[in-house]
Amino acid sequence: MSRDSVQTELTMNTSKFYDQWATTYDTDRNRTRDLDEKVLREVLGTMRVSAILELGCGTGKNTLFLSEIGEDIEAYDFSANMIERAKEKVSAKNVRFLQADITSRWTREEQSVDLIVCNLVLEHVEDLSTVFQEVHRVLRDGGLFFPERTSPIQTVSRREAELFERTFRNYFGRRFASAFRS
Fold first, then answer.
1. Tens of pLDDT, residue by residue, the chain (182 residues)
2. Domains of the chain, start order
3. What is the reported pTM?
4. 144 bridge partner residues
5. The pLDDT of residue 28
6. Using CA atoms, how far apart are residues 11 and 113, in angstroms rounded to an integer?
7. From CA 15, how far away is CA 9, in angstroms rounded?
8. DSSP the chain
9. Per-residue pLDDT at 70
10. How far is 131 from 125, CA to CA, in rounded Å?
11. Secondary structure (DSSP) of 133-170
12. Within a 10 A sphere around the Cβ of 56, how many other Cβ atoms?
């Protein structure tokens, strides 16, 4: 099985899982989701930007907040049911929801986004190179990429952390790599 077919299979299975979870996602007890929301608001709460891209918006748990700190929000998710729930929850005029696979080229123009938020998503992506390539392509100079993985039960091996850092550095340069060092 090729690497592309593995990623396609992973995306399809994960999408089906999230389509099924969409009806109870907001009401199920989920400390990871709740911690993620808290961290995002604490870190970005005072920020004001023009354009935001939210990767993996799910049911819109963070989208309403993002609509308050940004003028133009585009929110992607690969689950049609999650997008439908998000549309029910968030009616802000400055938000557009799109069903999209973040491992393929994105619809945004080059250097068109000030902030990219990617919460609890990257662990579902087998090959991060396309994601980082697209972040690099659409993020404006001086923009912020905020990938968050806050799960207390998920751990990253040293090898995975080094691979993530190396891939990130390939697209964003050495100045960002220091963020991964403790």
1. 444 543 444 445 666 666 565 576 666 565 665 666 787 888 888 999 999 999 989 889 899 999 999 999 999 998 888 899 899 999 999 999 999 988 899 999 999 999 998 877 766 677 778 888 999 999 998 898 888 764 444 444 455 555 555 555 555 554 443 343 33
2. 3-157 (3.40.50.150)
3. 0.70
4. 115
5. 59
6. 25
7. 10
8. --HHHHHHHHHHHHHHHHHHHTTTTTTS--HHHHHHHHHHHHHHTT--EEEEEEES-TTTTTHHHHHHHEEEEEEEES-HHHHHHHHHH---TTEEEEE--TTS--SSPTT-EEEEEEES-GGG-S--HHHHHHHHHHEEEEEEEEEE---SS----HHHHHHHHHHHHHHH-HHHHGGG--
9. 97
10. 9
11. HHHHHHEEEEEEEEEE---SS----HHHHHHHHHHHHH
12. 22
Cα separation of 128 and 2, whole Å? 16
How many Cβ atoms from other residues are within 10 Å of residue 180's Cβ? 13
For 163, phi and psi rounded to 5 degrees? -65, -45
Q: What span, in angstroms and rounded, lies between the C-alpha atoms of 79 and 77?
A: 6
Amino acid at 177: A
